[in-house]
Amino acid sequence: MAGTRDRGPGAVRVSAGERELNVRENPDETATMTIENTGDRPVQIGSHIHLPDTNAALDFNRSRAEGFRLDIPAGTSLRFEPGASRTVHIVSLGGRRRVPGIRLPLAEAGDR
User: pTM for this structure?
Assistant: First the structure.
């Protein structure tokens, strides 16, 4: 890694070799889907956002994406320009596959 140190505060120490990220044993825990930005502004999706909770201008099968996030490195995001669509890899969230507090379910949001 360019610009990193191996000693002192902020040091980055890594073992030799490669590591495969977001590996899942069950094939049902990974998939691909197409996402389209139908809005008039760019939208970014971060690495750990629960896909069904993303911006409403993004058009994709939200029920199929329940319990999933983008299969991209932690701390990164994908940007969708207005009118753009792309096919992305998705991966299941760990644990109970729940991320409470991002957005209210539609039924509850209508009650406010």
Answer: 0.73
